[in-house]
């Protein structure tokens, strides 16, 4: 029995509310169970120096957790004067995941920055950030297309992410914090809407796992990703 009472292949409840901020070109609040992340996409008519005059756009991301997104207060990283290694790793993951679904030539020489701010954490924050980040990116690109600033849609596919793991000896889908903290194996699966893998992060947490168990986790991830893509499309009216 999972702590939440869910079935082994059951996702947490997922909701995506769009246009939640006034100024960002695209925004959403994604809730996966008790993990809540605010995602905003901001457009700039410039690219980083290494891309100037190359006719390519750029999508990047930043990630952060609010001090009381966790059970006890976290110190703001700005107070420490630098980002922690975990934060840097996650925001790089978000950025390269979202770029996998973008035709950067069709985007033109402009940059979209996707900010993912964790309001409340209960496991799976990076997966929620990628899934919600794509929705914010989709909405920002829709505005570019409506304004006629780009001719063809630069988003080639959805991008979503879900966690799976082995908890109490059983492969389970969409780990919450009680499961994540006790899982023998933990994995994050990022893929396109058509099922093409972008990144798989799997590691043993005190116990090893077999090829068969890995395949079972990937099958669970396929189910969860399909549900998340459907939620994304419903949110953006696709």
Low-confidence stretches: none
Question: How many helical elements?
Answer: 6
Helix content: 25-40%
Shape: globular
Oligomer: single chain
Strand order of the largest sheet: 1-2-3-5-4
Structural class: alpha+beta
Q: What is the N-to-C order of secondary-structure elements (H for helix, E for strand)?
A: EEEEHHHEHEEHEEH
| Strand residue content | 25-35%
Mean pLDDT: 96
The radius of gyration computed from the alpha-carbon positions, rounded to a whole number of angstroms, is 18 Å
- Count the E strands: 9
Distance between the termini: 36 Å
The profile of the biggest β sheet is: 5 strands, mixed
Subunit structure: Homohexameric ring arranged as a trimer of dimers.
Catalytic activity: tRNA(n+1) + phosphate = tRNA(n) + a ribonucleoside 5'-diphosphate
InterPro entries: ExoRNase_PH_dom1 (IPR001247), ExoRNase_PH_dom2 (IPR015847), ExoRNase_PH_dom2_sf (IPR036345), PNPase/RNase_PH_dom_sf (IPR027408), Ribosomal_Su5_D2-typ_SF (IPR020568), RNase_PH (IPR050080), RNase_PH_bac-type (IPR002381), RNase_PH_CS (IPR018336)
Protein name: Ribonuclease PH
Concise synopsis of the structure shown:
With 238 residues, the protein is of the alpha+beta class. 32% of the residues lie in helices and 29% in strands.
Give a verbal description of the structure:
Belongs to the RNase PH family. This protein is an alpha+beta fold and 238 residues long. 32% of the residues lie in helices and 29% in strands. The strands form two sheets. The chain has a five-stranded mixed beta sheet with strand order 1-2-3-5-4. The radius of gyration is 18 Å and the shape is globular. The termini are far apart. 43% of the residues are buried. The mean pLDDT is 96.
